[in-house]
Each structure stands twice: as structure tokens, then as C-alpha cells.
């Protein structure tokens, strides 16, 4: 059995294994060396955030039984997509496919911040009053469905190998859990790593209540996109410890931490000013970093 065949045949085990391992590793790290003191009960947040993750997984399985892996196999069998028209070294193809799909995720992330209706969905992710490993998987089911449709369209155009899609999704999930961790790295290590990947301190800026900081550092995996397209921000104005996490106006624990509040959030309240080009922060309050 080749490595590709092993990965394909054991996809579910690999996915569950990586998710569970990252949850345990990051959870213990957060417990032993938290970057910030939590505002509310960790048990409450973890129960509701992980219940939402379970619900999203169930919804995806019901609507897209074969999901991204099935689409990649279908595209390969029918000769669809860029990689099915040209011959690449398998390793080179996997690397290019992962980089391209990561770029699409970056663009998608900007899209959900730019379109008010999509921001209504995405603010479920941002309204978490604390920031930890479970925040990285906390999304509204409708956003998860839209994300999957974008992913399927990308696979049809790109035509990547099935193994490339599996590796990408496992990497993306693992990295999202890592960079949403309530942990910190020594500055010299953080500065080096963020040249290549998104670190917790880098992405935490994106969860600031300050909307200009929210609309920065959109990357989930590779950090290069924010640098290339001018959306990179090194640190929040108030620093990692004093910055406020969440969205202004969303301070109720019932609304931001309980499952029913998360599911209803996109459909209630007025549109906030966090969507790109609708900034409401005051220029006079900005100080040099």
C-alpha cells in the first residue's frame, strides 16, 4: 500500500485523530500557560463551541456525503481541472494545490468580512468573548455550507489529487486550532514562525473589538497572503494582554456562548460596522505602535 492509498483509506481516522490530538495538546497548553486570563467559564464555552462543531459536521455529512474528497475523486475520474490537463510531479502537485487552496481560503475570509450578509454569519466566529482552541472551529452552519460550496468549486477548477485535498483540510483544521490557541510563543520564535505560518499572537489581532484590527491578518495557515496584499498587522494597539476580544454590542453570555444564541445570531440585531469599508473607529484615538 502506498502512502497516498493509506491516507485515502484512513481519511476519517486521520481527521479525527488530528482534531482530537490538537484539542488535547492545545487544551493542556492553555491550561498550563494561558496567554490571557479567561473572562467566562471555559466549561460553558467548550461545551457549546464543540456542540456547534458536532452539529456542523453532521450537517455537512447530510448535505455533502462525499464532501471535498468525493469531489476531488469525481474531478480526477472525469478529467476536470488544471492538474488533469498537465503532468506534474505528484509532490509538486500537492504543494501547489495546498498553496492555491490556502489562497482561496484567504480570499474567502476577506469576502465574509466584506459582504454584510456574510458578515452576519461570520460574526458567530468573532463574537466569542474569549479566544482559545475551540474558537478556531466555531462557525455558523450556514457559513460552513457556503465554505464547502466554495471549496467544491475550487476543486473543480483546480483538479487536485484526492490526497492533496485531504492533506490540505487536515493542515487547515490543525492550524486553525493552533493559531486560535490561548497561548503565546517566545517573541524570537513567534517572529520567525510568522514569516511562514500564522501564529496565535498574529491571528489574535484579527479578533480584536477594534474594527480596523478585525479587518487585518485574514490568513489561517500561510502568513504570506497578509503581507503580500497589505492586510498584515503586527500587534494590536493595546497589546496582546490588554486588547479586548469580540464584537462591540455582543457582550451577553446567553447570546455569545450558548448554542441557541450562536444559531440565532445572524438573524437578530442591526448590522455592525465591522464589514470592510464600513469602519466606525475614530482616527483620533489611534496611536503609533
Automatic annotation (TrEMBL):
Its main location: membrane. The chain crosses the membrane at residues 12-32, 53-74, 94-119, 148-172. Coiled coil: none annotated. One of its GO terms (biological process) is lipid biosynthetic process. Pfam families: FA_hydroxylase. GO terms for molecular function: iron ion binding; oxidoreductase activity. Residues 95-231 form the Fatty acid hydroxylase domain. GO terms for cellular component: membrane. It is found in: Membrane. InterPro entries: Fatty_acid_hydroxylase (IPR006694), Sterol_Desaturase_Related (IPR050307). Keywords: Membrane, Transmembrane, Transmembrane helix. This is Fatty acid hydroxylase. It comes from endosymbiont of Galathealinum brachiosum.
Amino acid at each position: 500500500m502506498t502512502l497516498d492509498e493509506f491516507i485515502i483509506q484512513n481519511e476519517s481516522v486521520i481527521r479525527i485523530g488530528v482534531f482530537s490530538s490538537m484539542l488535547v495538546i492545545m487544551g493542556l497548553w492553555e491550561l498550563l500557560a494561558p496567554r490571557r486570563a479567561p473572562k467566562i467559564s471555559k466549561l460553558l464555552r467548550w461545551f457549546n463551541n464543540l456542540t456547534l462543531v458536532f452539529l456542523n459536521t453532521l450537517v455537512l455529512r447530510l448535505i455533502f456525503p462525499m464532501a471535498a474528497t468525493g469531489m476531488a475523486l469525481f474531478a480526477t475520474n472525469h478529467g476536470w481541472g488544471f492538474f488533469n490537463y498537465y503532468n506534474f510531479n505528484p509532490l509538486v502537485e500537492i504543494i501547489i494545490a495546498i498553496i492555491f487552496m490556502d489562497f482561496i481560503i484567504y480570499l474567502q475570509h476577506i469576502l465574509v468580512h466584506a459582504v454584510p450578509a456574510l458578515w452576519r454569519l461570520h460574526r458567530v466566529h468573532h463574537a466569542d468573548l474569549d479566544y482559545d482552541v475551540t474558537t478556531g472551529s466555531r462557525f455558523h452552519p450556514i457559513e460552513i455550507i457556503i465554505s464547502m460550496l466554495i471549496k467544491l468549486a475550487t476543486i473543480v477548477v483546480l483538479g487536485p489529487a484526492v490526497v492533496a485535498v485531504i492533506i490540505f483540510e487536515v493542515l487547515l483544521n490543525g492550524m486553525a486550532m493552533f493559531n486560535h490557541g490561548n497561548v503565546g510563543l517566545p517573541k524570537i520564535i513567534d517572529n520567525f514562525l510568522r514569516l511562514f505560518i500564522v501564529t496565535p499572537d498574529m491571528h489574535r489581532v484579527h479578533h480584536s473589538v477594534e474594527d480596523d484590527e478585525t479587518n487585518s491578518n485574514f490568513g489561517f495557515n500561510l502568513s504570506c497572503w497578509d503581507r503580500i496584499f497589505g492586510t498584515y498587522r503586527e500587534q494590536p494597539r493595546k497589546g496582546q494582554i490588554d486588547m479586548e476580544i469580540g464584537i462591540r454590542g455582543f457582550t451577553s453570555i446567553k447570546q455569545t456562548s450558548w448554542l441557541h444564541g450562536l444559531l440565532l445570531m445572524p438573524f437578530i440585531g442591526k448590522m455592525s460596522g465591522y464589514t470592510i469599508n464600513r469602519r466606525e473607529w475614530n482616527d483620533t484615538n489611534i496611536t503609533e505602535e
